Amino acid sequence: MSDDAAGHAGDDAPEDDGAAVPAIRRVAGTGVPLRGDDIDTDQILPARFLKAVTFDDMGEYAFYDQRRDADGELNEHPFNEYQGANVLAVNDNFGCGSSREHAPQGLMRWGVEAIVGESFAEIFQDNCKSLGIATLAVDHGDAVDLQDFIEANPDAGIEVDVREETVRYDGKTVEGDVPDAMREALLEGIWDTTAVMRTNLDRAKEVNDSLPYTDD
Amino acid sequence: MSRGTLYDKVWERHKVADLPNGQDQLFIGLHLVHEVTSPQAFGMLRERDMAVAFPDRTVATTDHIVPTTSEGRDRPLADERAEEMLTHLEQNTEEAGIRFFGLDDDRQGIAHVVGPELGFVQPGMTVVCGDSHTSTHGAFGAIGMGIGTSQIRDVFATGSISADKKAVRRVEVTGELGDGVGAKDVILHVIRELGVDGGVGHVYEYGGEAIRSLDMEGRLAVCNMSIEGGARAGYINPDETTYEYLKGREFAPEGEEFEERKQYWESIRSDEDAQYDDWVEVDADDLAPQVSWGTNPEQVVGVDEPVPAPDETRDPEAAESAQDHTEVTPGETMEGHEVDVAFLGTCTNGRVADFREAARVLKGREVADDVRALAVPGSGTVKRKLEAEGIDQVFKDAGFQWREAGCSMCLAMNDDALEGDEVCASSSNRNYVGRQGSTEGRTHLMSPAMVAAAAVEGAVTDVREFDVAEEVGEPVDDRGADAEVSE
């Protein structure tokens, strides 16, 4: 990994005022390729591991069933092979299915800080935004090229630039798309929306009172 | 940009503010809560020393982890982790003053069954739940959206979510549905046509003759699976079918208030000249019962139609690996494909009408030897109603296990699960690898009637070839004197 590529989320954090979350301008590190379309959240985090009242252990359960062979031994799944990586490279409709936040929580706690792929399911993408995980949508060919590159160069530096909406590796820059709200939220450090929405609580109460169905 | 649609109107009525990230702060009229995705959110709230802002707009039930045998529901639950989740929900809802339908309440059941049948869900509401199948509630002309746990925290703390408006696609389903073909076949067909990711960035407004002809329970099944087509929400404009269903429900308005409310419901219907971002037509005339052959909900075929070769599909690589998993043969029909398990229930097809439909097929017949058949009502209310009508007996006589309400085998967070490489005829919504509890298990999605037929034959069967009973059981309406039997 080259020095200039090494880095981590949150390196542009504003002054901490107690409630703020760090701004995330870029995520730099190494990649983990995960091929296949329509990888659903049941596969990312199997349902039986949802029986926990906190997300603390979810990192251990990411892709649990796919990371083991029939005897329960760890196999050659990318999440076994690319330990320490933080940029996940996927294909189309990643994170479809169940709304469980356990899935992005599991990826995050395993180490994922940004995901580059062809497209993402909406609830999954919203959950990523809430957690400060950047998702960058790129063309099919670009996604496959990135996966090929990581497989050939597992230690090479990869940088997802949220501001520029690009992924940089191997001396080239690939254009992509970070949803506007996610980009704004990450860059401004407002991806945790509770505090800002809480300031509008009086207005929410007005809306509540104005609705025809809230007087039951 | 859409204009004049129900989605536009409901959104505007619920918008609280513009947020600095460019999204809208949207007020939530009904927040359904269950045990799996909420404890972490309550925890986050506590860390921030915040209270639930609108407890009266919040309703909780327990569904995902509950055992479906009556003896299994004795407390403490045998599964310690399930007991812990349930205890957390009990304590959290009590502390916050949230109405909770727990195991000791005979109305307990799946959030997406309980909300509608008790009259909590009404047209023109915004509804969220930490469950992707919240799209179900669009059947009433509500905007129902699944959310993650951090967003649950937001709703607790602010009564709102941060969201951006999607494009509105009108999905016009034309044609008349034949005998033995229903709502589940329609939605599987729509997803097959538009793809599992076809709805990303969109909400679906379903309309057209085939949709209008559906009763409320059918409409709930259609909207339920919107998310399987990638659409965050799907809805149907409210009409007399909707209002008749709501009449007399426990938490629906009554009398004059009902009539007043109806004015709002009518006002939020999409305008005649509403503008849509996209319009697609799907023909359901001569539609055959649909069956999934693969491992995602667009890998579907008519029961009398050959399974496609991988290179005839949108995604040949995915089709090949799916067919490898399910051991189906391209060129052959799904008819005759043997099954080991039949599963009736879930938030898609666990309602009274679904069990009636299956019972018409089962009446006077028996489940094939070696088929394990589970009937799991979506709620205690559904169960009691079927029992009052004598429909439970049809299931028991046929050899089905008659269970208590819960999500059950749909995602197998309780003891109900596929074992090994069992093949399941399932009324549920997802056939992803591992979904029903075994990584080798195989799930074939189909309608309740088709599940019943598969249970009897021990193999996927065209239910249209069955002589089905005209009527089963004695219809009973338990909604009170004002309500008419309309299901």
Architecture overview:
- The complex is a heterodimer of chains A (216) and B (487).
- Chain A contains 9 helices and 8 strands.
- With 216 residues, chain A is an alpha/beta fold.
- Chain A is 31% helix and 14% strand.
- The model of chain A is unreliable at 1-19 (pLDDT under 50).
- Chain B is α/β, with parallel strands linked by helices and 487 residues long.
- Chain B is built from 16 helices and 19 strands.
- Chain B has helices at 6-14, 39-47, 80-96, 111-117, 149-158, 183-194, 209-212, 216-224, 240-246, 255-267, 316-326, 346-349, 352-362, 380-389, 391-398, 448-457; strands spanning 15-18, 24-27, 30-33, 58-61, 99-101, 126-129, 143-146, 160-163, 167-174, 202-207, 233-236, 278-283, 290-292, 300-302, 341-344, 372-375, 401-402, 423-426, 442-445.
- Chain B has a 5-stranded parallel sheet, with helices on both faces. In chain B, strands 17-16-15-18-19 form a 5-stranded parallel sheet.
- In chain B, helix 2 packs across helix 5 and helix 13 crosses helix 15.
- The two termini of chain B are 37 Å apart.
- Mean pLDDT of chain B is 96; it is low at 481-487.
- Chains A and B meet through helix 5, helix 7, helix 8 and helix 9 of A and strand 1, helix 2, helix 3, helix 5 and strand 8 of B.
